């Protein structure tokens, strides 16, 4: 069994941390739960250090991952772009 759900959760926490409107944040979180239900039954706790997700190294990592899966859209792991699509560097 693949553990892509771990990367999916980390990328979606990154996405949720970048959203400022609470109503939109709840909508994206609900969609995330729908996507995650395909992989595992997990409970995601979004309380995490903001500094981890605001650093330039993290932005580079997320942007690189997003560019890779943008290029290889047919990969079965490209679902992680659900969280990385907001990356800007």
UniProtKB/TrEMBL annotation:
Rhabdovirus nucleocapsid domain ranges (all copies): 2-89
Pfam families for this protein: Rhabdo_ncap
Entries under InterPro entries matching the protein: Rhabdo_ncapsid, Rhabdovirus_ncapsid_N, Rhabdovirus_nucleoprotein-like
Protein name: Rhabdovirus nucleocapsid domain-containing protein
